[in-house]
Structures are given as C-alpha cells and as structure tokens.
Amino acid sequence: MNIHTTALPEIFLIEPQLFQDERGYFFELYHEQKYQELGLSLRFVQDNYSRSRQGTLRGLHYQIRQPQGKLVQVTVGKIFDVAVDLRRRSPSFGKWVGVILSDKNRHQLWIPPGFGHGFYVLSEWAEVLYKVTDYYAPEWDRTLLWNDPDLGIAWPIPEGQSPLLSAKDAAGRRLAEAEVYE
User: Fold this and answer.
1) How many domains in the chain?
2) Cβ pair 104, 141 in contact under 8 A
3) What is the pTM (predicted TM-score) of this model?
C-alpha cells in the first residue's frame, strides 16, 4: 500500500496493493493495522454506498457537529472527488483539492473531519463506497455551495452543461455565509 500527499497536507491519496492474474484481481479495501503503520489510526462506525448517473454532482457536504472523517473509494465508474478545508484557523482554510477516483485506479481518498466533501460523476454510472468516523446526524448536516466563486473549484463539467443536483445541493451556502469549524 502506498500513501501520497495532496495539495492539502491532511488529505491523503491511498493506493491499495493489488494482486492480479488471469482470473482477475484482489485487494484489501481496509486493513486497520496497515493504515496504522501509515500513520492513520482510524475508527469507522458506518459504511455508506451511493450510485449516481453521469453528470451528477453531490456535495459539498459536512456535519458542523459530529464531523465525519471519510475514506472514499469508487467501486464502479469514475468521479472527480473534492475536499474543502472548512477549519477557520487552518492555513489552508477555504482551499480545495480534487482527484480522480475510479474502479480502474482503485485509489482511496482520506478526508479527515473538518472538511467539506463532494464529487462529480464522470462515467455513465458511478458507485461510491465511503467509510465514516462518526454517525450521520441530519440536524448537523450542512451543504456548501458547489460553485461558490470564492472557492473556485475547477469541476470537470463539460462546457454548456449543468450538473444534476439535489434541491439541498442547489441551495448550498457560500463559504462567506456558511457555518465552519473554529
């Protein structure tokens, strides 16, 4: 297993070790001891799974209380996955990082608590599995506006197209107005 840093120091791209032959392949989605050896001591309490069609944009989501760390992986398809630092005292507050996660590269993205998260579906369909470090708490659920110009996220949305959004995601708040972590 290899771990790579990103433009935001707390966000890691993880490459699981792949065992492949003519029959197919095998890899471990999560192995607590190996993650601890990489310096990631994580306790997960819930697994989430979503299936979305091409052009769907989900996010940017976070919980202002009971913040969730997320280990994100694509099992089918391809997405552009984004994390935004929402910790006001952080030197990278308001900065974002985006990576391609797919069933081909099998990479995982570790997003610690204190970050907003969202993704855009690039393939016909995408199925996303993410492990979280705290339970879903709808009363603390918040949404940051996906296209906030102050964030300037370079979503790979084709020219002239609009993403498929839920009503909640379309009504997200701009960073300047959003509740953030102190």
Assistant:
1) 1
2) no
3) 0.94
